[in-house]
Amino acid sequence: MQRRRIFALTVLTPAALAVAASAYGSLASGGGPKMGPTSTISRPAFHGYYDGHKDTYLNSDVSDKAEAKAMHINYAPALKAVPLNSAPEIYLVQGKAAAGQLAVFGSQPGETSYSPIWKETILSWKASATPVLITSDTQIDKLEKKGTLTERSTSIRLNCPIIKVGKGS
């Protein structure tokens, strides 16, 4: 009986090591689905605020034909199938704004609510208000409660993946 066990270990151990080495080799060489060779392109990137810091994002597709034309990006009607309640908000200020105002995100990579598909929400300052720089969705809520900022939900979805998360302020 001991002879069989030794034989099994001497035969199976090298086989197991070969399988493990093969698996490691495929992982180390980028195993998994192949997308083809990589190349580099030049593409405009944007910055937006999340919780007081700047993130970098791309804007590639939108579910609204007029916005696609105005933004010079792809019109993607299939984005309309994304449920609005599953998409985090991207806040865009319309009309008067503080100097340096950027988009404001409701989430970012690493959070359970993050998605590269965003629900567009339009912010507007009340006529009597003096715009301040908005850098977080928490700040938006406070400004709305104060009565100086209004929020208008839309049914527009944007494909804007965040490609670089900034450092906290």
Summarize the structure.
By secondary structure, this protein is of the alpha/beta class. It has 3 helices and 9 strands; from the N terminus they run H-E-E-E-H-E-E-E-E-H-E-E. The chain has helices at residues 2-28, 65-71, 137-146, and strands spanning 46-50, 53-57, 61-62, 74-75, 89-93, 103-105, 117-125, 149-159, 162-164.
Molecular structure report:
- By secondary structure, the chain is an alpha/beta fold.
- The chain has one domain.
- The chain contains three helices and nine strands; from the N terminus they run H-E-E-E-H-E-E-E-E-H-E-E.
- A nine-stranded mixed sheet has the order 4-3-8-7-5-6-1-2-9.
- Strand 3, helix 2 and strand 4 form a beta-alpha-beta unit.
- The chain is globular, with a radius of gyration of 25 Å.
- The chain starts with a helix and ends in a 5-residue tail after the last strand.
Unreliable spans: 3-28
Rg of Cα set: 25 Å
SS class: alpha/beta
Question: Roughly how much helix do the residues carry, as a percent range?
Answer: 25-40%
Terminal-residue CA separation: 68 Å
Instruction: Compute the number of helices.
Output: 3
Order of the strands making up the biggest sheet = 4-3-8-7-5-6-1-2-9
- Inertia-based shape: globular
- Mean pLDDT, rounded to whole units? 86
What fraction strand?
A: 25-35%
Order of helices and strands: HEEEHEEEEHEE
| Biggest β-sheet description | 9 strands, mixed
Number of strands: 9
Overall number of structural domains:
1
